[in-house]
Amino acid sequence: MLVNWHDPDHIYLVCGKTDMRKGIDGLAMVIAENYGLELYNNSLFLFCGGRNDRFKGLFWDGEGFIMLYKRFENGHLS
Q: Is the full-model pTM beyond 0.85?
């Protein structure tokens, strides 16, 4: 599986707190129901939780979704 991370057509930051316990299906439902965006184009969706030291990403690679998870051990996003 090769993914071109350098050239997504769109990057969306989902505002507000997202339940970080959600998996791929739950995050896809948030995008489809709340924002009405197309999930299957070359877009990266980024979600923040209640704490600002971790986030999740959702990306469709043409064959399936990839879920990314990042946690900052020594810092946080501002």
A: no
